[in-house]
Amino acid sequence: xxxxxxxxxxxxxxxxxxxxxxxxxxxxxxxxxxxxxxxxxxxxxxxxxxxxxxxxxxxxxxxxxxxxxxxxxxxxxxxxxxxxxxxxxxxxxxxxxxxxxxxxxxxxxxxxxxxxxxxxxxxxxxxxxxxxxxxxxxxxxxxxxxxxxxxxxxxxxxxxxxxxxxxxxxxxxxxxxxxxxxxxxxxxxxxxxxxxxxxxxxxxxxxxxxxxxxxxxxxxxxxxxxxxxxxxxxxxxxxxxxxxxxxxxxxxxxxxxxxxxxxxxxxxxxxxxxxxxxxxxxxxxxxxxxxxxxxxxxxxxxxxxxxxxxxxxxxxxxxxxxxxxxxxxxxxxxxxxxxxxxxxxxxxxxxxxxxxxxxxxxxxxxxxxxxxxxxxxxxxxxxxxxx
Length: 387
Fold this sequence. Notes:
- The strands form four sheets. Strands 3, 4, 5, 6, 7 and 13 form a six-stranded mixed sheet that branches. A three-stranded antiparallel sheet has the order 11-8-12.
- Helices cover 33% and strands 15% of the residues.
- The protein is of the alpha/beta class.
- The chain is globular and about 60 Å long.
């Protein structure tokens, strides 16, 4: 006979979701992955803790050279060139690694990985660098990720990495104001969302559809939270040009005499040949740690570890034009730490976890604009040299 309390406990245990079960298990005492017990313990994303990498990066490189095949990286972004700068820097240091980067919107990378896991049982990729932070949590809880703590682990901000090493933030990306500085001075450039309602900017504004990108949706939701839907309706009266992709607004700037935008990314905090970032003083803007993870089914695990180690290394981090996730890397010249500005790179992750809220907001904006129109920015032919 089964005791009633035993049966009740069994029912309660069965009611746990996979995510809740893994969360409980990960809170329990863990064992190091290496040790005499390893051959007798099962695999699982919650059974072991991972020590930070102790090998030098050249030693990881040597180990990676013993592998064969390509290091395949799915890279979140909306232009074909988004990974080019990192790839060039990586190959400069590790020229014998055969690396392939696949650019696409993070939401489509997620779908491709999920489909591969569902149909083939493997992720079909070694590393993913994505904006969709909530999916790293989901894959972790499903046991699909390989924990890895790179050499710089202890220097990376606690809220910008999974505490067990299943994913880690590389740098902080932000969507904010961009202007054509050849025609718009810093003194007159719009900084706050209400500045874009000035009649002088009518027909000069280029904006990304809110529903095309969850980070862009979060940006618009911040503006509406601060200034109401009447602000958005007044913005529509300014006749902005709507485009797809966070890179696209600045690519369209050459077609508009005094172009401005608050939905552009990819420029970092520095100026380009004709463009400059202008940060708000009071209105909040979206930022987040662009993060990466290694999949458990990666074919080239050592090369994948080399990728993560380099992305978080001081050698690479000191070259980026935005805020670092490391505590020992200073901001770009002319800027203070992100804490000095009206942004919180930690809150985007929480926003992304609330999928019901994201969907409601998307439909609210689609009531005004409809779904995003036009080809994907990866294939629309619009590049920096188009105009």
